[in-house]
Write a structure and sequence with these properties.
Number of helices: 9
Order of helices and strands: HHHHHHHHHEE
Largest sheet: 2 strands, antiparallel
Shape: globular
Strand content: under 5%
Structural class: mainly alpha
Number of strands: 2
Radius of gyration: 20 Å
């Protein structure tokens, strides 16, 4: 029987492939919890940079939603309570809706609000939220969220075809998120095999087998890059010189000013 920790028996509809309360009685899934730092630190910086560059508030909100997802996921994996699960999953849907709106409006006039698109996305978010609260089936949330991710990728490709953005950032974001999705699936499908293999390893190496934690790290990194990608596109549309720069060796890209060539 799994040990009962500080938060009691899990009430969530999902319990991931990490032994509960193995590291501390105060955190149900230790490694799945702290790996959410990848969803907390980058959006704080990205949101501040977007605000500093004077981008429309919708772009700042994309980072805010990514941060909220990180907070919700932290609370979910720390407690395995159903209420905290909702704090993780529902912001994933609403944050992706905000990304779709921001991507679609990359080349819109300043201060223009697409009321029809906003209404359509709002209705979708409300329907998904209400239905999910009613049926409490994780597969419904995963399909509803996955459908939005496919739309985002389509808009990304359309933006890439304009040839005005640094395509490498989109490529890296796609590879990072795709790898994360593969790890998420392996963690779900081959959980028993992973647990068996994990027990054969020295304790210091066991965290490396927590594939759901890798999902957090790589998906968080990929989503941060994705937002950065269309933030740069928006600045280019506004004819503001900018360039994606990288902090080495941390592989942390950010949006910085582009040096002007003296004629």
């Amino acid at each position: 029987m799994a040990p009962i920790g500080y938060w009691g028996n899990p009430t969530s509809t999902l319990d991931w492939c990490e032994e509960n309360y193995e590291v501390t009685r105060y955190i149900a899934e230790f490694w799945n919890t702290i790996s959410n730092l990848a969803l907390l630190i980058p959006p704080i910086y990205g949101g501040w940079i977007s605000w500093k560059h004077g981008l429309e508030f919708r772009y700042v909100l994309c980072y805010v939603f990514l941060f909220i997802v990180g907070v919700g996921s932290w609370c979910f994996h720390m407690t395995l309570l159903y209420e905290m699960q909702l704090l993780d999953e529902l912001p994933m849907v609403w944050g992706t809706l905000m990304m779709i709106y921001s991507l679609y409006e990359v080349h819109s006039p300043p201060d223009k609000i697409n009321k029809l698109l906003a209404l359509e996305l709002l209705i979708y978010g409300i329907i998904v939220s209400v239905v999910y609260l009613a049926i409490r089936q994780p597969i419904f949330h995963q399909l509803a969220y996955g459908f939005l991710v496919v739309i985002v990728v389509g808009f990304d490709i359309r933006l890439a075809l304009t040839g005005k953005c640094e395509i490498w950032i989109f490529v890296v974001a796609s590879i990072s998120y795709s790898t994360a999705f593969c790890m998420w699936n392996i963690d779900n499908v081959f959980c028993s095999e992973l647990i068996t293999a994990r027990q054969l390893l020295p304790f210091v190496f066991r965290p490396l087998t927590q594939l759901h934690g890798w999902w957090h790290c790589l998906a968080g990194y990929g989503t941060y890059l994705q937002i950065l990608y269309f933030c740069q596109a928006r600045m280019i549309h506004r004819k503001e010189p900018c360039k994606i720069k990288v902090i080495w060796p941390f592989l942390f890209p950010y949006l910085g000013p582009k040096k002007q060539t003296i004629q």
